[in-house]
Amino acid sequence: MYQVIGITRSRAFRVLWMLEELGQAYTHVAASPRSSGVVAVNPAGKVPVLVDDGTPITDSTAIIQYLADKHGAMTCKPGTLDRARQDSLTQFLLDEFDSALWLAARHSFVLPEELRVAAVKNTLRWEFESSEKTLVARMGHGDFLMGDAMTVPDIILGHCLDWALMARFPISQPRLSDYLARMRKRPAYMRVAG
């Protein structure tokens, strides 16, 4: 059985959602970043951490791709053009969506107050909206990013769009709003979101 360490209102949501989609058993330890329980398995103090057979694995994207590969689901076969497209979408989401949201969070509550620059959030919102347009142009035909099958980047995008709304980053593209509404109706998503 897997163990997932990290509060749900973090990137641990991605790991929990993935495990629910895969139908895998797990235990969840809702530990906050930098808490002693987290630092014991990840010296950086960051969440999520997945513990598999006593081995901690860090970074939400590495974890969900590991789970997809291990269980042969929600991923394309390595060495194929479909996998290259999947990896490209994953990297795009991390570079353009996740990084903007994380930088905004850092300047909202993570960094010491004297280092925060509130005005940077306006630039990040503008970049996020520009990236939405690019992503819509890259999306496949069907309910998911790559078309008819849910893959790793869908977990990342669904989480990032939720995060965007919480951070008051507008979702300007109707196709992405519709996409998020579909993701939120998935039974696996609802089990994690509670």
User: Poorly predicted ranges (pLDDT <50, ≥5 residues)?
Assistant: none
Order of helices and strands: EHEHEEHHHHHH
Radius of gyration computed on alpha carbons: 17 Å
- Which percent range describes the beta-strand content? 5-15%
In which order are the strands of the major sheet placed?
Answer: 2-1-3-4
**Contiguous helical run count:** 8
What would you say about this model in short?
The protein has eight helices and four strands. It has helices spanning 12-22, 36-39, 60-71, 81-110, 120-138, 152-166, 174-184, 187-193, and strands at residues 2-5, 26-29, 49-52, 55-58.
Report on the architecture of this protein.
The chain has about 190 residues and is an alpha+beta fold. The protein contains 8 helices and 4 strands. Strands 2-1-3-4 form a 4-stranded mixed sheet, covered by helices on one side. Helix 4 (about 80-110) packs parallel to helix 6 (about 150-165). The longest helix is centred in the middle third of the chain and has 30 residues, at about 80-110. The radius of gyration is 17 Å and the shape is globular. The relative contact order is 0.13. The model has no long low-confidence stretch (mean pLDDT about 95).
